[in-house]
Each structure stands twice: as structure tokens, then as C-alpha cells.
């Protein structure tokens, strides 16, 4: 989260080599990474699967964030999902709870954000309106639609994760 000396990512200026129209996507992903890293620094791994009030668990949100970024950016490239991506999707609901699992999941998200940023840097603005099919049904979207959705979906799940993590932590007191 921003500190008094560090404003939110979108207020720090343009990111090098990211096309201007994709700056908001990059800013949102970097902000999400910072907030998750800070909030979960001391989160106990054994509580990753807890679902207070029936909410999705912190572990689910972390795994889902990685998977959604991977899948939406794959569709934005005009590619189908791989068997590995489909297997990951099927396992998103079963977060690990072993010692070190929180750091592994946070690191996996950070790496997925890095991968997404590399793709944003390599995406020419001219292709943003191009059609892209989503899923087996090939539902219609565009490159920019997928990239903006990835950022929006990420921020939505980060908000839910932050609330759930605080609920889990408060229940431990």
C-alpha cells in the first residue's frame, strides 16, 4: 500500500516502454502486487484455506489471480489455453497450506505480473481493437478488452483478498 513517501503506482508517472494506452493496466497490476506483498508478509500459511463467512479463501484469491492473468493474457495473444493452464484452473480452489506457501503464492503472483508487464511492453497499440476469442466457445472480445478486464478482475480480487485476510487475521486474535 502507498506510504506517505510513496504515492500509489498510477501517481508515479509513466512506466518505461509500456504503450500509453496500456499504462492504466500496468499501473493496476503493479499496485495489486504491492498491496498483496505488504499485506501478506506475515500471513500464516495454515490459514490460507479459511473461508470466514463463506467468503473465498485468501489462498483461492492468490491462485486465482495468477491463473486469471495467465489466461486473459493468453487469449489477448490469440492463443488457446494449454492443458497445464486448464489443470491450474481446476486446482485454483485447493490452495497449499504448507510452511512457505504464502511466500510461494505471493511470489507466483509477482512473477505473473512481471510476465504480464513484458507482454504489455510488447503489445503494439495498433492491435488493441483486434478481435480475440475467449474460451472454448470463442466468446467475442478484443485485445484491449482482455487486457483491461485482466486489470479490473485483478483489482476486484485483490480487494476481496484484503478484506478476507483482515477477517482471518482478526479471528486469530
Summarize this entry quickly.
It is built from five helices and two strands, in the order ααααββα.
The H-level CATH homologous superfamily, spelled out, is dinb family like domain
Kindly, what is the distance between the CA atoms of the first and last residues, rounded to a whole number of angstroms? Answer: 23 Å
Give the number of domains: 1
Radius of gyration: 17 Å
Alpha plus pi helix count: 5
Question: What is the CATH third-level topology name?
Answer: Four Helix Bundle (Hemerythrin (Met), subunit A)
Number of E strands:
2
Percent range for helical residues? 40-55%
Strands ordered across the widest β-sheet = 1-2
Order of helices and strands: HHHHEEH
Structural class: mainly alpha
| Average pLDDT | 93
Strand content: under 5%
Characterize the main sheet: 2 strands, antiparallel
CATH architecture: Up-down Bundle
Dominant shape: globular
Low-confidence stretches: none
The CATH class: Mainly Alpha
Q: What this model shows, in words?
A:
The chain is mainly alpha-helical. It has a single domain, classed as Four Helix Bundle (Hemerythrin (Met), subunit A). Helix content is 55%, strand content 5%. The chain contains five helices and two strands; from the N terminus they run H-H-H-H-E-E-H. The chain has helices spanning 23-39, 58-76, 83-91, 101-121, 143-171, and strands at residues 131-134, 139-142. It has a two-stranded antiparallel sheet. A hairpin with a 4-residue loop joins strand 1 and strand 2 (139-142). Helix 1 runs parallel beside helix 5 and helix 2 runs antiparallel to helix 5 (143-171). The longest helix has 29 residues, at 143-171. The relative contact order is 0.20. The model has no long low-confidence stretch (mean pLDDT 93). Residues 29-161 form the DinB-like domain. InterPro entries: DinB-like, DinB/YfiT-like. It holds the Pfam family DinB_2.
Amino acid at each position: 500500500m502507498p506510504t506517505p513517501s510513496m504515492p500509489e503506482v498510477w501517481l508515479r508517472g509513466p512506466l518505461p516502454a509500456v504503450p500509453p494506452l496500456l499504462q492504466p493496466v500496468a499501473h493496476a497490476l503493479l499496485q495489486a502486487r504491492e498491496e498483496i506483498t505488504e499485506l501478506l508478509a506475515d500471513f500464516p500459511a495454515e490459514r490460507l484455506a479459511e473461508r470466514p463467512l463463506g467468503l473465498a479463501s485468501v489462498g483461492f484469491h492468490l491462485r486465482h489471480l495468477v491463473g486469471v492473468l495467465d489466461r486473459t493474457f493468453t487469449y489477448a495473444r490469440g492463443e488457446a489455453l494449454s492443458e497445464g493452464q486448464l489443470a491450474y484452473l481446476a486446482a485454483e480452489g485447493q490452495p497449499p497450506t504448507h510452511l512457505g506457501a504464502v511466500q510461494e503464492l505471493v511470489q507466483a503472483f509477482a512473477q505473473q505480473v512481471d510476465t504480464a508487464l513484458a507482454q504489455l511492453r510488447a503489445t503494439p497499440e495498433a492491435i488493441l481493437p483486434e478481435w480475440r476469442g475467449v474460451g472454448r466457445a470463442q466468446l467475442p472480445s478484443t485485445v484491449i478488452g482482455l487486457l483491461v478486464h485482466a486489470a479490473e478482475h485483478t483489482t476486484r480480487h485483490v480487494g476481496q483478498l484484503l478484506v478476507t485476510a483482515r477477517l482471518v487475521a482478526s479471528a486469530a486474535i
